[in-house]
C-alpha cells in the first residue's frame, strides 16, 4: 500500500508556490535548479506565484521568507541553495528559527536517498522542511541532482496531502 498519491477527494485543491534560489552567482538564465523546481511544480498542476534569487545573506533570507510566509494565499515556499556547511551556506541558519514545526522525516529521508546516490557526502546536507506561519517550507541543496531527487521522491508525491493536512487544522 502506498501513501504517495493525493487523497482522491482533494485532487482539485489549488496550491500556490514560491521558489527561491539562494546564490551569490546564479541568474535567471543560469539557475537550472530553480528552473527545475518551477517546471516540476507546474507540470504537476501547481501555481508559481513568484520566483526570486537571493544572495547568501542570512538576514535577507530570513526577512524575505518571514514576509512571504505572512501571505495568506501562499501554501508552499521552496528554497534551494545554501544548505551545506561552507561559510556562505546560511539558508538553514536563516530559516531554522522561524519554523514553528519541522518535518524531521523530510531531512532524514532526503539524506538517506542522497547517500544512495552520492555516498557519505550526504552528511553535509542540512536540507530541512517545516511550517512557518501556515506555509509549508522546504529548503533544498542547490545541486540540480539533489533538487530532482527531492522533488520527484519526496515533495511532489506528498505535497497535496501535506497542504490538505495543514489547511484542515
List the helices and strands and how they pair.
Elements: E1 16-22, H1 32-43, E2 47-54, H2 58-69, E3 76-80, H3 91-96, E4 101-102, H4 104-118, E5 128-132, E6 135-140, H5 144-168
Helix pairs in contact: 1-5, 4-5
Characterization of this structure:
With 169 residues, the protein is an alpha/beta fold. The protein has a single domain (14-168), classed as Molybdenum Cofactor Biosythetic Enzyme, Chain A (3-Layer(aba) Sandwich). It is built from five helices and six strands. The chain has helices spanning 32-43, 58-69, 91-96, 104-118, 144-168, and strands at 16-22, 47-54, 76-80, 101-102, 128-132, 135-140. It has a six-stranded mixed beta sheet with strand order 2-1-3-6-5-4, sandwiched between helices. β5 (128-132) and β6 (135-140) form a beta hairpin. α1 crosses α5 and α4 (104-118) packs antiparallel against α5. The protein starts with 15 loop residues before the first strand and ends with a helix. Residues 1-7 have low confidence and may be disordered.
Q: Could you name the CATH class?
A: Alpha Beta
Intertermini distance = 26 Å
Q: Give the name of the CATH architecture.
A: 3-Layer(aba) Sandwich
| CATH-defined topology | Molybdenum Cofactor Biosythetic Enzyme, Chain A
Helix content: 40-55%
How are helices and strands ordered from N to C? EHEHEHEHEEH
Shape call: globular
Low-pLDDT ranges: 1-7
Helix tally equals: 5
Beta-strand percentage range: 15-25%
Strand order of the largest sheet: 2-1-3-6-5-4
Radius of gyration: 15 Å
Q: Round the mean pLDDT to the nearest integer and report it.
A: 93
Domain unit count: 1
| Name of the CATH superfamily | MoaB/Mog-like domain
Number of strands: 6
Amino acid at each position: 500500500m502506498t501513501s504517495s498519491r493525493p487523497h482522491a477527494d482533494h485532487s482539485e485543491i489549488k496550491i500556490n508556490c514560491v521558489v527561491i534560489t539562494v546564490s551569490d552567482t546564479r541568474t535567471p538564465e543560469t539557475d537550472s535548479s530553480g528552473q527545475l523546481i518551477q517546471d516540476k511544480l507546474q507540470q504537476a498542476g501547481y501555481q508559481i506565484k513568484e520566483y526570486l534569487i537571493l544572495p547568501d545573506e542570512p538576514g535577507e533570507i530570513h526577512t524575505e521568507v518571514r514576509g512571504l510566509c505572512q501571505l495568506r494565499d501562499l501554501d508552499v515556499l521552496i528554497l534551494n541553495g545554501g544548505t551545506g556547511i561552507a561559510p556562505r551556506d546560511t539558508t538553514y541558519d536563516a530559516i531554522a528559527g522561524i519554523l514553528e514545526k519541522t518535518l524531521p522525516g523530510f531531512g532524514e529521508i532526503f539524506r538517506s536517498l542522497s547517500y544512495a546516490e552520492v555516498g557519505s557526502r550526504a552528511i553535509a546536507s542540512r536540507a530541512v522542511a517545516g511550517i512557518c506561519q501556515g506555509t509549508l517550507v522546504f529548503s533544498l541543496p542547490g545541486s540540480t541532482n539533489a533538487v530532482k531527487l527531492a522533488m520527484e521522491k519526496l515533495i511532489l508525491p506528498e505535497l497535496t496531502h501535506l497542504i490538505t493536512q495543514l489547511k484542515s487544522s
